[in-house]
Amino acid sequence: MSLVRFPRRLAAFVILLIIALTSLGLIAANIYTVGVSQVGILVNPYTGDFSGPVAGPTLAWKSVPWVNVVIVSTAVQTIQMVGSGNNINVLTRDNLNVSLDVTIRYQVLSTNVITLYKHYPALSWEDNALVPLIRSSVREVGVENKLTTSLETEPSLANDIQLVELNLRDIVLPNSFLAAIQAKLNAQQQLLQAQFQAQQLIVTALGQRNATIIAAQAQANATLIQASANAQSISNIISQVEAQTGTTWNSTQVAAFTNMYTELQLLSRLTGQNLYIFVGSPNGSLIIPTKP
Questions:
Q1: Residues 258 and 276 grouped into a single domain
Q2: Domain-located, residue 95
Q3: Do 161 and 256 sit in the same domain of this protein?
Q4: Is the pTM higher than 0.70?
Q5: Do 199 and 279 sit in the same domain of this protein?
Q6: Distance CA 141, CA 143 (A)
Q7: What is the C-alpha end-to-end distance of the chain, expressed in Å?
């Protein structure tokens, strides 16, 4: 078996190429980037040392390749606690169970990010600390002040996280409470409707009473007018009788004639027949019709 010999120049080139690639690999392993609104924490897993934070955007160099670079976002983050099963249930002073939809915006402070990372190496401060604090704080009066105080006093978060904004987006009342409100509104509407109808009845009754009064007054006036006309007609008839017979009637004769004429006139109207009164005297006789 014969050995294959490489030219010395080719062998040297291959060795140089391997060295160059290894060097490039080591250089690439030691270079890291930090983006916008991010900070980098350098963690030595062997010594337990921390360095940084390195604010982005930047391209930086690690001293040794085994140092780990942990990237933490310092941008404003949003926590949505909205909808059934995720919103916050609150018991009011009136023992009313109310559901609140809450939106929280917070920001990690870059100056203390190493301390925050030591407490939460899995970057789990949102689920393990912030959400429970939000739930407990929202149930208190003065939600924003309470949450700010909690963030400042919580040992694992103190001076590491800043509250940017808290919004109570919706308040979901229980169906029983909404039904009670609707029943109350319906009762109020029915009461108003009953009052309106009662007022209408009063107005109608007053109108009917006024109409009856007016009709009665009109009838009375008509009766008076008719009576006055009848009296004037009887007076004229008596004057004609006195003139034609050359007599003068006394009050008794006038009253008797008036009663007779009025009764016969009413009877004439009822029967539709014309009835007559015969007046006799030495100077002549007259026949007076009672139907006008």
A1: yes
A2: yes
A3: no
A4: no
A5: yes
A6: 6
A7: 168
Quick one: 45 and 69 in the same domain? yes
| CA-to-CA separations, 181 to 63, 92, 98, 186, 192, in angstroms, rounded | 69, 17, 15, 9, 16
At which residue do the structure tokens 């249930």 appear? 89
Q: How far apart are CA 204 and CA 106, in angstroms?
A: 68
Are 70 and 83 in a shared domain? no
Domain span including residue 255: 179-289
Distance CA 122, CA 103 (A): 24
Residue 191 located in a structural domain: yes
- Locate 149 and state its tokens: 């105080």
Give every CB contact of residue 137 below 8 A, 6+ residues apart in sequence: 143, 146, 147, 150
Task: Return the residue matching tokens 């060295």.
Answer: 19
How many domains is the chain built from? 3
| Separation of alpha carbons 288 and 282, rounded Å | 17
Q: Which residues of the chain have pLDDT under 70?
A: 1-14, 16-17, 20-29, 92-94, 139-156, 158, 170-183, 185, 211-229, 231, 278, 280-286, 290-292
